[in-house]
Structures are given as C-alpha cells and as structure tokens.
Amino acid sequence: MSDTIRTGGCQCGAVRFRIRGKLGRASICHCRMCQKAFGGFFGPLVSAPADGVEWPREAPSYFQSSINIERGFCPRCGTPLTYRHPEGLEIAIGAFDDRSDLMPRIQVHSGSAIEWVEKIFDAPKRSAAEDAARREEGMISFQHPDHETENWPTKGLNL
Ligand SMILES: [Zn+2]
Ligand SMILES: [Zn+2]
Known about the structure:
Distance between the termini: 32 Å
Number of helices: 2
Shape: globular
Strand content: 25-35%
Strand order of the largest sheet: 6-7-8-9-4-3-10
CATH architecture: Beta Complex
Order of helices and strands: EEEHEEEEEEEH
Structural class: mainly beta
Bound molecules: zinc ion
Radius of gyration: 17 Å
Largest sheet: 7 strands, mixed
C-alpha cells in the first residue's frame, strides 16, 4: 500500500530491519510475558506486514515463549525486537529509528498491569542541567545510530 520503508534494529546494530508496507496498530501489552521479555513495565509493539520485513544484516534469534509465540532478539546484544504469533508479526516500537508516529493506541492485557505503572510519570524529573552535569566526560557510545549505515564496525562484530 505504501512505499515507505521503515528501518530500525538492535542496540549494537548487528540486527537491522527494513519494513516495506503499512504498519498496523501500535499497542502496549501488560502481560507478564511482555514484562519479562522486554525487562520493562510492558511490551511496546506495532504490527508489521509479515511478508514486508527484511533483515539486511544478521537475523534475530528466537525464544519460543509459548506454544504459538516466538520472540525475536539480537543474539549479540539482547535487544528485544519481534513478537511473532499465528496472526502475524509485531515489532518493538523502541527499536525503530523513527518512533515519532508510533504512539500506542490501545493497551492489552491491562488486567496484568503492574499496580503502580500508571503513576510512574508522577515521579520527579531530574533537571536537564543535572543530566548534563552527570554526563560522563569523554563518553564513547557503541550504540548503533538511528539511521541506516553502510557498515557498522562496532566491537566484536564481523559484518
Ligand atoms: Zn544487537
Ligand atoms: Zn504481552
């Protein structure tokens, strides 16, 4: 339907995706499996056309979390990337290079939500000035940038 190509990938850059076609519903899932798989408070996912997803570098590894479900992740850095179920494929929202239009529109399995999750943004915010003051001098990031790269020579990778 759309020629737009959406890109993204894991933190280290070994696993990158290119998605051709229209993305579907963006959601957060509060189930216990998503909490564990993401190491977070919920799973942020958007559905993708199953035949429109390419992995131009390495393919993800998969953990079968239940009889019909596989969860894909980078075998090198562990970033959660996919949720594959009999009806389709979903991709972790935070892994997209551009997440600006992927605001979740629905919450699922909200009966399993952590009891305080709706209050987390009530916590006080450290100021930007303090964030900057605490930033380590000379910090060097090994995180892949939020765009496609010809080659990503990061530590330990043979791409
Ligand atoms: Zn990785
Ligand atoms: Zn879930």
